[in-house]
Specification:
It is built from four helices and five strands. With 229 residues, the protein is α+β, with helices and mostly antiparallel strands. It has a domain of 88 residues: Fusion Protein Consisting Of Minor Coat Protein, Glycine Rich Linker, Tola, And A His Tag, Chain: A, Domain 2, CATH 3.30.1150. The longest helix is centred in the first third of the chain and has 21 residues.
Length: 229
């Protein structure tokens, strides 16, 4: 036997109506809740609006330095002018104020003595670092390099220990072209330094340096390079 439902008791047709009624009831409750309040609101009305217009002024406190008073003016002593009265009967001497030169007078002009130029003293101790014409090895720079490479004796101790480098030697070329005061200014090895001094000391005479047309003593620097092939 099947169960049959009556159309009058079917709630599916009225579900939309119940939903709309629920929304209306919920909105009514929310509206009443917002309108209902126990607080008293007091409104203050400002009758005079001019009192609101004001400007804060900031006054800077400025301090002025006290200006010292000007120094007192120096006292000027009072000068009393004295006038001496001279009687008219006092005789005075005649003074000749003639400004014309005596054309007949011969004036003698004495010339100042001219001192003879002092010759520069020949000082053996003066050694120049730089002169107008520097000293030069006979034959020029190429001849100097050839002399050094041909006459160098590589020390055995430096050769066995594979020591090489460049020794800077400074010396004086005297006015007669001879070499003096040989010294090492940048050493490398004692054996190489001694050989560089021996090599420079055994050089032939140079062409001396010239200063104001005269031969002078002059310092000169030469690098001696020791390089193994």
């Amino acid at each position: 036997m099947s169960i049959k439902k009556s159309p009058k008791v079917n709630l599916e047709d009225k579900r939309l109506t119940y939903i709309l009624l629920g929304f209306v009831f919920a909105l009514s409750v929310i509206y009443v809740a917002f309108e209902w309040t126990d607080r008293d609101v007091t409104v203050h009305v400002i009758e005079n609006t001019d009192a609101l217009d004001f400007v804060d002024e900031v006054v800077m406190n400025t301090q002025q330095d006290d200006t010292p008073p000007p120094p007192p003016e120096p006292e000027v002593p009072e000068v009393i002018e004295q006038i001496t009265v001279v009687e008219d009967d006092v005789e005075t001497k005649d003074i000749d104020f003639s400004s014309e030169d005596d054309k007949d007078k011969v004036q003698e002009v004495i010339a100042a003595p001219i001192a003879a130029p002092k010759e520069e003293e020949d000082d053996e101790t003066v050694i120049f670092q730089v002169v107008e014409q520097m000293p030069e090895f006979p034959g020029g720079q190429a001849a100097l390099m050839k002399y050094l490479s041909s006459n160098v004796r590589y020390p055995v101790a430096a050769l066995e220990n594979n020591i090489q480098g460049r020794v800077i030697v400074q010396f004086t070329v005297r006015r007669d072209g001879s070499i003096a005061d040989v010294q090492v200014v940048r050493p490398v090895n004692p054996a190489l330094d001694r050989e560089a001094v021996r090599l420079i000391s055994s050089m032939p005479k140079w062409k001396a340096g010239m200063q104001r047309g005269k031969a002078v003593h002059c310092k000169f620097t030469v690098p001696v390079t020791f390089k193994l092939q």
